[in-house]
Amino acid sequence: MSLSLDRLDRFARHIVLPEIGGAGQVALARKHLVLVGLGGIGSPALQYLAAAGIGRLTLVDDDKVDISNLQRQTLYNERDVGHGKAISAKRWIKLFDPALDVEISDRRIDPSRAAALVEGAHLVLDGTDNFATRLAVSDACVKAGVPLLSAAVGRFQGQVGAFAGHLQGEACYRCFVGDAFDAEDCDTCAEDGMLGAMAGWVGSFAALQAVRILLEDVSGFGDPQWSRVNLLDGIQPGMRQFTIAKDPACKGCGSGT
Ligand SMILES: [Zn+2]
């Protein structure tokens, strides 16, 4: 597979980067990414992932666009208010780059539905705001052998972690947060408030990490940083990183399964 002339032009600034190059750009065009959650994180993440030329995208969200979303969910405009986020996001992609292959799901994720959605993907990026969904997605990823990039934001703190619990010695998202949240379905965003650009920072950093993971075997962009979580602080601006140990008794990836 080679890139057509107009695709070479479109991705010229990627292709001149030794960390991506022509081989990396061709690889991205062959990748399938599942994006769960098209809100404050998923919206800017999707814009950068689509712009990066990731060839196949599955977009998952059961919510509708509300006027209060426009303060941070940069994908949408006033015309989308009242329409589904998934169909609105697909409409945006079709205008932005019709060459990308887009599927959507606008139904709420539960454990049985999560398995079908992540099957065969190269990477899942989860930017949803409730733990029940996040844990269902994580468990499905481990079972299907699909890596998971998990991103979250609250007030002025964000976190982005890369998980490959299906690999020996690597943690899954459940190793990180434990089982206590299985039944919890909280939408803290409405209560806590959030600076729009903070969600944008977390979402665009998640997109950067997603490209890194998708190019793991293709270029010298660095390792995928499995089992590591980055904390992004917007009050005292900076980032720090820590490593999550695999829990041998984990219900998602260990002996507790
Ligand atoms: Zn685990």
Query: End-to-end span in angstroms?
Result: 40 Å
- Which parts are unreliable, with pLDDT below 50 for 5 consecutive residues or more? none
As laid out across the biggest beta sheet, the strand order is 3-2-1-4-5-6-7-8
State the helical fraction: 25-40%
Give the SSE string.
Answer: HHHEHEHEHEHEEHHHEE
- Count of DSSP helices? 10
Bound molecules: zinc ion
Structure classification: alpha/beta
Biggest sheet record:
8 strands, mixed
Using only CA atoms, what is the Rg? 17 Å
Mean pLDDT: 94
Percent in strands? 15-25%
Question: What sort of overall outline do the alpha carbons produce when their principal axes are compared?
Answer: globular
- The total strand number stands at 8
Could you characterize the architecture of this molecule?
- By secondary structure, the chain is α/β, with parallel strands linked by helices.
- The protein is built from ten helices and eight strands.
- The chain has helices at 5-10, 12-15, 21-29, 42-51, 85-96, 111-118, 131-144, 173-177, 188-192, 196-214, and strands at 32-36, 56-60, 101-105, 123-126, 148-154, 157-163, 228-233, 238-243.
- The protein has an eight-stranded mixed β-sheet with strand order 3-2-1-4-5-6-7-8, with helices on both faces.
- Helix 6 packs across helix 7 (131-144).
- The model has no long low-confidence stretch (mean pLDDT 94).
- Zinc ion is lined by residues 165, 171-172, 174-175, 247, 250, 252-254.
- The site of zinc ion has 10 residues, from helix 8.
